[in-house]
Amino acid sequence: MPTKIIEPAEGAYPYPLLIKSLLLSGRRYAPQREIVHGSSRYNYQELNARICRLAHVLRAAGINEGDTVAVMDWDSHRYLEAYFAVPMIGAVLHHVNVRLSPDQVGYTMAHAQDSLVLVHDDFLPLIEALAPQLPSVHGYIQLSDAPVPGSTRLSPLGEYEALLAGADSTYDFPDFDENSVATTFYTTGTTGNPKGVYFSHRQLVLHTLSMTTTLAAYEGFALLRSEDVYMPMTPMFHVHAWGVPYAATMLGVKQVYPGRYDPDRLVRLFREEGVTFSHGVPTVLQMLLNCEEAAKTDLTGWKLLTGGAAPTESLVRQMAARGIEFFTGYGLSESCPLLSASFLEPGQHELPLEQQLEARMAAGIPVQLVDLHLIDAAGQRVPEDGASLGEIVVRAPWLTQGYYRDAQTGAQLWQGGWMHTGDVASITPGGMIQIRDRIKDVIKTGGEWVCSLRIENLISLHAAVAEVAVVGVPDARWGERPLALVVLAAGAELEPGALQQHLMQFVSQGQISKWAVPDDIRIVEAIPKTSVGKLDKKQIREQVRDA
Amino acid sequence: MPTKIIEPAEGAYPYPLLIKSLLLSGRRYAPQREIVHGSSRYNYQELNARICRLAHVLRAAGINEGDTVAVMDWDSHRYLEAYFAVPMIGAVLHHVNVRLSPDQVGYTMAHAQDSLVLVHDDFLPLIEALAPQLPSVHGYIQLSDAPVPGSTRLSPLGEYEALLAGADSTYDFPDFDENSVATTFYTTGTTGNPKGVYFSHRQLVLHTLSMTTTLAAYEGFALLRSEDVYMPMTPMFHVHAWGVPYAATMLGVKQVYPGRYDPDRLVRLFREEGVTFSHGVPTVLQMLLNCEEAAKTDLTGWKLLTGGAAPTESLVRQMAARGIEFFTGYGLSESCPLLSASFLEPGQHELPLEQQLEARMAAGIPVQLVDLHLIDAAGQRVPEDGASLGEIVVRAPWLTQGYYRDAQTGAQLWQGGWMHTGDVASITPGGMIQIRDRIKDVIKTGGEWVCSLRIENLISLHAAVAEVAVVGVPDARWGERPLALVVLAAGAELEPGALQQHLMQFVSQGQISKWAVPDDIRIVEAIPKTSVGKLDKKQIREQVRDA
User: Is B379 within the bounds of a domain?
Assistant: First the structure.
């Protein structure tokens, strides 16, 4: 039998979920709150006016509905304006990952068919080199933090501030289909070209509503409420800066955009602007803790959400020692990204830190509307017993519906009607997700699965270890064997054998099997990282193979 | 130009916004939290199992997708289960307003074409009398709080608990169109028959997400967060109990359902169950404050949201004196209902109470995604200057799209593409809505508009006044003149002339015009109320006219 579908009366407004609606409430709640970037400082009323001005500038630059506008910028108020203005005129915002190799940047811009590029002075050399390969691009707008914009041979349409100054401060943003693409960006897998994910207005509005509830409603996870001050430390080009700029703007909190990430500047901004909430991948947080400015700053009360990779216990303890309130979230480029968060259980946040560590390091439990479980290699559900491993598959209202212009990998992503995260995890009977590894990084040795992250964690507990990566290398007898790269702490000295001995204590405690102890542990100067600061296991494997 | 619409890959799941999704997170966050009603007390895992059992019972009773199931119950765990199970099988939940006259109840049930009725013992006499006029009803399920269910000549399919006990505790709830009708209920206007409003799954999911953000994210309005304990005091049949049961369940908070509203029991439950958050119309809150149990209970810290009618200053002061944290929200049956809330401005909640009163009594500012403004009689926008009056018109993702089987009044509701609230208000330059009156209750006298609510408020400040209503009565010379009905406080004595004198002080202060002072002030024993406890101005006008 069919359900009864709601019947609209004549004139009834079928409210589409559009990004423009996210702007309504922040300005009403706190019209005088500030958006800060460098020497630029203005309030929510001005933010709204500037978004209107930018919309006019984009239209004047020939941008129509369905066109794609690329942004190449550090975290700035301009980027925030683009988060809104570009999709609000019906165009697609391409968040260019400027940390990819020049070839990959060029690939993504050509693949996304960018029409217009908003480009910061710092990326002029890059875009000048790429321009000949980008026939779809018909214009550039220059973004500059300097009094005199950098010189370029690109003939840009103008400098951003100058163009905005000449544009009208009101704009009648149109309604359109909520399933219109609002944003796109590229994710680099371990093989092949970067893949384009894309998110609709509807998806971003729903993600924002869920994000505000997630960050506000749980007493053990109270990261972003009306009186907080927000500063991202996950780049704005990376998965919508985890979606928080949209959430912060909807709520109407003060926002601080730090430009290029310089650890000392980040800490100064925290101190001087009264920042209370930031988020970043573990490597960025580690840089922060190690910087000069951090040594002379009281970091107490800074609420930090980490994700993108599991934090090591060592990092977590360092943060706790500095009085930082740290939490873990989980998501990926394909998921907009919010999937789960390390809410503490009721009452748990009143326990001594030691008893909170496990929960704070875990990926937590799925947030509202997220439906998620584990499957094994055969696609069968894996029990939630805290031990059994399986790949996380998920349904949520804000997952990419495929890869742009790549039907085949899109269908693989969605095999069986669930989105495959590529993450291997266990789930406790209490529902807590513990990410164990990327499915590609799991080391298959002697008939069992060894999680590289687990071994990395245990090695990182050794005082002489600053950084560590574990990968599987082909082995004729065992299929694969784990191999570790280790960067020593400053001034430390160590023989690989001492680390094997260190690991053997966990074997005798029954925490890991003896198969998990790497035969090959190499002391190195540095470990390859991806553009967003994660361990680059693909490159590590290549490097180890070639060595 | 068309926008670019997202393209789903093969297998991509187009996540519909369905009420079943609201159940995912509460159980994961706090599986052991309790749902309490009378002697019934169970946790979220059990709630989920019982919803599945109820779904089987409904299907076994012949309910298919698109059928309508009526509930006639006081606030209970059973009603909460129906909030989910009925729409989750694709049926429509008809919230029967049991406080309407029997004729009107019969009208609404026939008009809604109810198939099955879940009916509490207390309403057996009512439904037995109506049954012959309800050909669409083919079955009854009996709801009972007593050890032995009440006797009836209706031959019900069974008693609720007995039926649930015999049903399976898992159910594979289907997906369907998110625009399917989930709920319906009737609103009584000043003229004509009750009108049916209806809300889809999509609308209720969006309303819930906005509600959780609204109630959690604002430090000056922190009504419902993860550690709160919720008890409604707005009936569950009335506008989804303001939507809070869905929000509370999604969050996973403890919920207490108080049955029929007995003020002493409500206060006892507050004390014994650790209730922190409730909501109710001003008349219910007034009863609460006046009851015996309240006199011997420390009410400090009880967070009360009021709405449905503006609270009088007198009530607000009484609540403050008892240490109650009170706030005002605004919405109507047609709006699901959440439209705006009296968020205090940043910092304002730290001011002395006296300086918060105005903001706490106002309807506040619109919540996320709500777009709203004032129009005059000609449909033109009215300035937001805190003085100019206009009717509130609104767009939001959760407004009824019409009146059920009544295209004409639906089109009137949505005239010009905006939903007409029928409420006359001013909006301050800071965006704060101040409801002045129902457009039908505004008294047009001597060429100007006099707001009856304003006069009621000023009269209520007089110590001898317990309750007051002001209506317009036809007047040959002035068009209309205000007339006041006054119930005196217990033991008080007063001549009408003293109240006119009381009002003249506000005339000389310039707060009201002299036209606003009623010539006719009548001391009465009681003032007619609607089924939900509001002043029944329609009946008052009739009574005054007939007198």
Answer: no
Is there a single domain that holds both residue A420 and residue A290? yes
Which pLDDT belongs to residue B445? 83
Q: What is the ipTM of this complex?
A: 0.91
**Claim to verify: residue A249 and residue A390 sit in the same structural domain:** yes
In DSSP terms, B479 is beta-bridged to B445, B475
B422 in any annotated domain: no
Nearest-by-CA chain A residue for B11: A417
Q: Measure the CA–CA gap between B175 and A371, rounded to whole angstroms.
A: 14
Q: Which whole number is the average pLDDT over B123-152? A: 96
* C-alpha distance from A28 to closest chain B C-alpha (Å): 6
The closest alpha carbon to A201, from A227, A180, A186, A216, belongs to A180
Q: Give per-residue burial for A272-292: e unless 16+ CB within 10 Å, then b.
A: ebebbbbbbbbbbbbbbbebe
B129 to chain A nearest CA, in Å? 29
Which sign, positive or negative, has the C-alpha torsion A120, A124, A130, A132? Answer: positive
Residues A351 and A465 in one domain: no
The radius of gyration computed from the CA coordinates of chain B, to the nearest angstrom, equals: 24
State pLDDT tens for residues B68-111: 999 999 999 999 999 999 999 999 999 999 999 999 999 999 99
* Low pLDDT (below 70) residues in chain A: 189-191, 345-346, 447, 532, 547
Number of domains in chain A: 3
The verdict on a CB contact (< 8 Å) between A369 and B396 is no
Task: Give the per-residue pLDDT at A447.
Answer: 65
> How far does chain B reach from its first CA to its final CA, in angstroms?
65
Can you say how many angstroms the Cα of residue A408 is from the centroid of all Cα atoms in its chain? Answer: 25
Mark out the alpha helices in B93-200 (DSSP H runs). Answer: 102-111, 124-130, 160-165
Asked if the Cβ–Cβ distance from B181 to A415 is below 8 Å, we say no
CA–CA dist A201, B343 (Å, integer):
27
Mean of the per-residue pLDDT values for chain B? Answer: 93
Nearest CA in chain B to A211: B213
**Could you tell me if residue A528 is inside a domain?**
yes
| pTM confidence score | 0.91
Statement to judge: residues A368 and A403 lie in one domain: yes
| Residue keyed to tokens 């970091």 | A299
Q: How many CA atoms lie within 13 A of B381 on its CB side?
A: 7
Structure tokens at A309: 């990779």
Report the distance separating Cα A369 and Cα B88, nearest Å: 15
- Here the tokens at position A28 are 């009403």
What CATH number does residue A454 fall under? 3.30.300.30
Peptide bond connecting B337 to the previous residue in cis, omega within 30 degrees of 0 = yes
Residues A38 and A26 grouped into a single domain: yes
Residues B342, B451 share a domain: no
- For residue A252, what is the domain's CATH number? 3.40.50.12780
Same domain assignment for residues A122 and A217: no
Segments forming the whole domain that contains residue B118 = 19-361
A251 contact residues in B (CB cutoff 8 A): 213, 217
State how beta strands B114-120 and B139-143 pair: parallel
Q: Which of A166, A182, A197 is the last residue of a domain?
A: A197
Euclidean distance between CA atoms B185 and B97, whole angstroms: 8
Give the number of other CB atoms < 10 A from CB of residue B525. Answer: 7
Partners of residue B93 on adjacent β-strands? B69, B183
Name the catalytic one among A65, A190, A292, A444.
A444
Contact criterion met (CB below 8 Å) for A389 and A436: yes
The average pLDDT across B159-183 equals 98
Pick from A44, A67, A179: nearest CA to A116: A67
Asked whether residue B423 is domain-assigned, the answer is: no
Tell which of A148, A178, A197 closes a domain: A197
Q: Are residues B116 and B236 in the same domain?
A: yes
* Catalytically annotated residue among B190, B444, B495, B542: B444
- The pLDDT of residue A387 is 85
Asked if the bond preceding A337 is cis, omega within 30° of 0, the reply is yes
